[in-house]
Design a protein that fits this description.
The chain is mostly helical and 184 residues long. Helix content is 65%, strand content 5%.
Amino acid sequence: MNVPFTEIWLPILLAGIAVFVVSSVIWAVIQYHGSDWQPLADEDAARSALQGNTAGQYAIPYAAGNKDRASEEWQAKFRDGPVAIITVVPNGNANMASQLVQWLVWCVIISLFVGYVAASTLTAGAEYLKVFQVTSTVAFLAYGGMAGMRKIWFGQPFGSAVKDLVDALAYGLVSAGIFGWLWP
């Protein structure tokens, strides 16, 4: 018999909180993601060129669709470079409290889906290692699944993608440990 979802609310909540704590340690204490970003050759000129753009995602060269990408002008810009994908965030001080709350909620949502898959596939009293296997796999995929796509399609450096996968592995293992420990 599958596990009722109401019986796994505690591991869902605790796994989300644990991932939040582990990610805080990775980003605020260990800080090995600091090398993921590099300075621009002329930051002041770039800042000046980006003035007036609201928060959002931008591409250089920009094309509204395949017809524009097929034009000789766009092809020349793409070939000659630079080619960039830029995310502009709102000016001013970052609202760190709001971002942290959003990240915590996101971690709990991921744990909710991890719990859903586990409750749908495992029975009450399942062995710790089986619970660990299922939940670590689902959590790893949820936290790290986009690393390859960002590398392939958006030019994220290989090292940054690997670090994202290492983070996802840590989050998956922590989540799985909690689900295995508290599995009904």
